[in-house]
Design goal:
69 residues; mainly beta; SH3 type barrels; three-stranded antiparallel beta sheet
Length: 69
């Protein structure tokens, strides 16, 4: 299962990615800012999503809003 970022670059387990736009966090009042670095991502069963630690907690992020760092 291939997971690709917004530019079509292949993402692998353990890669670092940056956000390409501000994202509101569901269930919270916080916003993840554009350019936030998410290190050591984990791939999920869904090719459109990755899991990573951002904003102090682990969350699932859509690959379409990420760019490989």
């Amino acid at each position: 299962m291939d997971v690709k970022d917004s530019n079509g670059t292949l993402l692998n387990e353990g890669d670092s990615v940056t956000l390409i736009k501000d994202l509101k966090v569901k269930g919270s009042s916080t916003t993840l800012k554009r350019g936030t670095l998410v290190k050591n991502i984990r791939l999920t069963n869904n090719p459109a999503e990755v899991e990573g630690r951002a904003g102090g907690s682990v969350m699932v992020l859509k690959a379409e809003f990420l760019k490989k760092a």
